[in-house]
């Protein structure tokens, strides 16, 4: 079966145009005739049709990637075979490969490449949790869509759990430039090897070249095993250099324990990177956000100064995109507060108010407790005077009543 425009796969997917060519297959833009959506179809190259080894690899790719769901994975939708050829239908990613971006730009800023690697690491965690090792992590297999979302693709040489090896003993699978040392020695591929490949991508994007080169693929593979990793440029943040060097450790045990741990670590580094744009032709300040730099105080000693990332939006907007900010120390002490405190201390005591509200300590020059006692005593005195008045009024009324009764009796006689 020769792929060509108009060809239908399974009577459902119609080929439109070829968009990529790989070592094992061709990638075509196709239309799903049922839903009308655009999809990508990876078809075995015509010269490999009928080759059972390549057909087996295509089946393994479909099996290892089917069922994997993650925002940073290109979803596999369908697969099939016909006349000695096979295909895989997957999500069509509208964007560019990371390899094209690196070829065009040379280098990428840490705040640009680290979020991409963190996304790929999250996708790899899903892959590893399913028991699959990708084995071919490289920039051309990482697609960046129009929204900046990274998508990991191409499980052509992936290895699944209990999968029968499809390579001869001692044969190495993978791209030499991104091959982990243990895989270059012919050992079994592990998830740690995928993390090593991410370290090579990070090094390439930050330094503008890969850490190891050679005249042949074998020379490059053995350079990963025997040669020390060249240091990254000094202008990069220390935490960025540290995580890349850990990823490129010769021993798998010295690398991050999992892709999830790596993603979280990269996220923390990105959060602490400064907000200003990075220009490789200049030497930027890589002080982390919120940190302070001790400087010599005018009268001796040290004082904390705010970093560039602590500037207010108004002051940050005043610095141009290519202009280096001046190192003007701005102390954390607020002069206005000091002047206010001094004025309060110098104010005369007579100017202060002598009365306060109920929760205060003074009223009319007396403590609040004394005022309460005096009020209680006054209330008691009023009650005593009132009680005495009522008691004296009652006997008088009785004598008057008796007098009236006697007078009435005499008048009756």
UniProtKB/TrEMBL annotation:
PROSITE patterns hit by this protein: PROTEIN_KINASE_DOM (PS50011), PROTEIN_KINASE_ST (PS00108)
Residue stretches of biased makeup (Low complexity): 331-357
Broad class of enzyme this protein falls into: transferase
UniProt key word Magnesium: no
Compositionally biased spans, kind Polar residues: 403-413
EC number: 2.7.11.1
Keyword annotations from UniProtKB, A to Z: ATP-binding, Kinase, Membrane, Nucleotide-binding, Serine/threonine-protein kinase, Transferase, Transmembrane, Transmembrane helix
Domain Protein kinase: 13-270
Membrane-spanning residues: 371-391
Annotated segments matching region Disordered: 278-360, 393-413
GO molecular function, one term: protein serine/threonine kinase activity
Keyword Transmembrane tagged: yes
InterPro entries in UniProt: Kinase-like_dom_sf, Prot_kinase_dom, Ser/Thr_kinase_AS
Listed name of the protein: non-specific serine/threonine protein kinase
UniProt source species: Actinomyces ruminicola
């Amino acid at each position: 079966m020769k792929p060509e425009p108009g060809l239908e796969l399974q009577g459902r997917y119609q080929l439109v145009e070829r968009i990529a060519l790989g070592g094992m297959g061709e990638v075509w833009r196709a239309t799903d005739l049922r839903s009308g959506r655009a999809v990508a179809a990876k078809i075995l190259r015509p010269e490999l049709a009928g080759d059972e080894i390549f057909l087996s690899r295509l089946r393994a790719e479909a099996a290892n990637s089917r069922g994997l769901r993650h925002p940073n994975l290109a979803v596999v939708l369908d697969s099939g075979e016909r006349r000695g050829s096979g295909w895989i239908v997957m999500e069509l990613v509208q964007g560019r490969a990371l390899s094209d971006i690196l070829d065009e730009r040379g280098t990428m800023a840490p705040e640009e490449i680290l979020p991409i690697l963190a996304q790929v690491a999250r996708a790899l965690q899903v892959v590893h949790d399913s028991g699959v090792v990708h084995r071919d992590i490289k920039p051309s297999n990482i697609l960046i869509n129009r929204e900046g979302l990274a998508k990991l693709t191409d499980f052509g040489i992936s290895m699944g759990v209990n999968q029968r090896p499809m390579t001869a003993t001692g044969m190495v699978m993978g791209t030499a430039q991104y091959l982990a040392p243990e895989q270059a020695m012919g050992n079994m591929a592990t998830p740690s090897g995928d993390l090593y490949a991410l370290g090579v991508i990070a090094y390439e994007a930050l330094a503008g070249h890969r850490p190891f080169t050679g005249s042949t693929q074998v020379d490059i593979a053995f350079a990963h095993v025997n040669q020390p990793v060249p240091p990254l440029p000094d202008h990069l943040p220390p935490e960025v250099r540290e995580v890349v060097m850990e990823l490129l450790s010769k021993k798998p045990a010295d690398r991050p324990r999992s892709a999830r741990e790596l993603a979280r670590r990269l996220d923390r580094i990105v959060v602490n990177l400064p907000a200003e744009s990075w220009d490789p032709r200049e030497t930027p300040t890589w002080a982390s956000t919120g940190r302070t730099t001790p400087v010599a105080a005018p009268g001796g000693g040290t004082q904390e100064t705010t970093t560039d990332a602590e500037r207010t939006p108004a002051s940050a907007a005043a610095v141009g995109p290519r202009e280096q900010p001046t190192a003007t120390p701005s102390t954390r002490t607020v002069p206005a507060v000091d002047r206010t405190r001094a004025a309060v201390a110098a104010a005369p005591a007579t100017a202060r108010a002598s009365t306060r509200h109920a929760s205060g300590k003074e009223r009319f020059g007396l403590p609040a407790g004394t005022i309460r006692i005096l009020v209680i005593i006054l209330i008691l005195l009023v009650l005593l005077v009132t009680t005495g008045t009522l008691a004296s009024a009652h006997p008088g009324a009785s004598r008057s009543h008796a007098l009236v009764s006697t007078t009435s009796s005499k008048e009756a006689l």
